[in-house]
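Q: Predict the bound structure with S-adenosylmethionine.
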Amino acid sequence: MPEATATPARSHWTDAWLAWRDRLQASPRFRLWAQGFPPTRWVARRRAAQVFDLMAGFVYSQVLQACVQLRVFDLLLAEGPQTTEALARRLQLPPEAAERLLRAGEALGLLQVRPGTRFGLGPLGAPLAGNAGLAAMVEHHAALYRDLADPVALLRGDAGRGQLAGYWPYAGTDTPQALGRDGVARYSALMAASQPLVAEQLLQAYPLHRHRRLLDVGGGDGAFACLAAAHAPQLRVTVFDLPGVVAGAPARFERAGLAARCEAVGGDFFEDALPPRADLVTLLRVVHDHDDARVLRLLRAVRRALLPGGRLLLAEPLADTPGAERMGHAYFGFYLWAMGRGEPRTEARLRELLAQAGFTDVRRLPTRVPLQASVILAKTLN
Ligand SMILES: C[S@@+](CC[C@H](N)C(=O)[O-])C[C@H]1O[C@@H](n2cnc3c(N)ncnc32)[C@H](O)[C@@H]1O
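A: Predicted complex:
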């Protein structure tokens, strides 16, 4: 391996103070003292619990995975609290194994012990019950979990093409148009199931009633197109995505009774012209999948597709979102690395890219749960 040429690190006036603080916090004697000293005791306990949670988080995720795969939350919502024995029979688990899972779920707030030694939904399990989008998200993490088994190999690129890269095949090819329906079916179903989580944030943040023609770029097989058309009865909607993906859209439009106002166009948004004359373009969970050069190409194509003064709505989880900091660089940073393309971006970085692509009046619109999606609105100059 060629030796990396290291740039000498610049020093800063805080270095000496921070080095002293680091040495202090790393010292076992100081830790013992801080754990016993009343004013610092609570900080020491909280830090210890935070470190433990980082260490054990992968176990918690797999407890959740087991509950979702076994449909524990759906069952408890439909049938109410149940004893361990009854649940063991329903889940087809040995009673001791069911007890282990249920107690773990209780400790994580997913389940709750109810009177009569029965288990019911806990405060974190209840929102998952009956939520097909969240369940699909949790289940597809099985692929990422396998890729993360050796995180250093993943970072060094020694692990080869991983499971997640296979899940999102467009991220590993320069000819995504060639992907057939089979290759895109799994992720398209996941996106359709989880799209309401994004749409509910976006439609609350930005009413669509002032627009006439919406183009949903990278819009999958039309899940958002349907939600938007149902939300705004005056709107005509075109969904643009890879041919293998949009092939499923007409049937969705028919089922929703929206075929008269919704249409689907297949193509590669890096190579093909986008359908013109939209007064609103949406890019939902699309930009973070691609590197800066591709994003610029896409944004310029979007600008060309918009009528003068048209708007772009970009919705995706942003890095450095207050209150959801871990979601950006930690979760999406590793997720997209395993996928093989893309990166989480801050609002500031997206603003730069939008300005370079010829957009103006860029605003972040408040959303109720920015963890699910942040929304950025921009206007075309021409
Ligand atoms: C993460 S999914 C988001 C789907 C949808 N917007 C949603 O939020 O449910 C990204 C979408 O971009 C599409 N896509 C990726 N590369 C593309 C390309 N070069 N041309 C057209 N669509 C592409 C994918 O097929 C996929 O449907």
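A: Residues 152 and 158 are 8 Å apart (CA to CA).
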